[in-house]
Amino acid sequence: xxxxxxxxxxxxxxxxxxxxxxxxxxxxxxxxxxxxxxxxxxxxxxxxxxxxxxxxxxxxxxxxxxxxxxxxxxxxxxxxxxxxxxxxxxxxxxxxxxxxxxxxxxxxxxxxxxxxxxxxxxxxxxxxxxxxxxxxxxxxxxxxxxxxxxxxxxxxxxxxxxxxxxxxxxxxxxxxxxxxxxxxxxxxxxxxxxxxxxxxxxxxxxxxxxxxxxxxxxxxxxxxxxxxxxxxxxxxxxxxxxxxxxxxxxxxxxxxxxxxxxxxxxxxxxxxxxxxxxxxxxxxxxxxxxxxxxxxxxxxxxxxxxxxxxxxxxxxxxxxxxxxxxxxxxxxxxxxxxxxxxxxxxxxxxxxxxxxxxxxxxxxxxxxxxxxxxxxxxxxxxxxxxxxxxxxxxxxxxxxxxxxxxxxxxxxxxxxxxxxxxxxxxxxxxxxxxxxxxxxxxxxxxxxxxxxxxxxxxxxxxxxxxxxxxxxxxxxxxxxxxxxxxxxxxxxxxxxxxxxxxxxxxxxxxxxxxxxxxxxxxxxxxxxxxxxxxxxxxxxxxxxxxxxxxxxxxx
Length: 555
Hints:
Jelly Rolls; 2 domains; seven-stranded antiparallel sheet; globular
């Protein structure tokens, strides 16, 4: 295991961007004399004639060179430092502004729609242009995180053969379920803040709001369905509290299993205890940065594009950090684990909702229900979780758990540690007196001092309980079964801790509060107070399903 060598990308993530790390590049061909790097600005024509601003960095001397490309909506000049590093190590490096962004021509009406297999396909056009240049040896790698990772995911399916490798960090693979409408609920905190910060609000926001269902618009932004057309092996790096965690995992799993012959079985997955920004309430040990060699994009490309044996070749496909109690040096967890696949073997273990706020692996026999009122004018505020830049990660939920509109269920104090590694889902039997409402589920780790630290959470908009492609409103007071996806984690609940589940109907501003009316999304300003009920019995076994992992050693 190695520390990040030069791209501490989690320190650079702010407002969904890789922040600028260098000064602007001059608009003339020049030589960086101390390091012998040639820099040239180009306007590269796409297949429809639109020109994209592109800067090429390459070593002085005889080529051609393997080439790295990064395409960004955040100003290509901010990639100067990384470009220089690659050029000093024998690569050409191409930095490009996306269509309609900064110095590029055209309109950026819908972000990412021009970057992959759609029309226009700027990503493919750019790869073809690079491959045709005399300074490129025909071997191209793409790199970047967040939006710069998304442009890679969109460009990979059906890409020109010259694309030989990718290095993708913290990026979604399906914009509908991971970026815009998680569980069918609009991700207000992420999208509105990001679009406002980048100046892309108007057309993009109107378009996203106009498509609350998983329709043809979103299908064109779901790279997972195109995995068989990806023929470049990739490293996919994510964080347990990242806004796009499940996209990172899904990218790896789909391409590793279904990709073309050059990609299938050759991808890597790395998941660290990080978010899309800086986490402050829990600090994981220094070993959390001791990541596998493939996490470093230069080493990955040296291995794939240059054939160097530098440690990457000996690593297993999957590396993930098992979180534990970071305040206790003797606590189990807080270590890296390597595996051949994701998820590792685990036993799906249900924990059922019982009366008196009890969460137990024993099934409940006698009927039980709890009712609360959800008022969309006074939603449960967001504290921590997979947020963007601020207010993120594992944060204490106690102030929320005292609310009347939050149902709380806790286990007994654990007598032995319990590791949960994999995907988590809650299956609930619920009703509402309104035609639509939301249900949220949080999983927390309750410390001996009472802190209830968020592990992961999820949401479901009830109208989408059967399909995200079509809606089915609730019949008032009719009991239905729903599934809430809490995405994935790896954490050891230590001896002396408790496992807790909190159920409610809002988490704002992370998710747009459901007005409970059943009307089309944002069609009007009407709000209704919902009376929501959660049921539990032998016939209605409401529960959370935890993937309990039992390795040879919890340490």
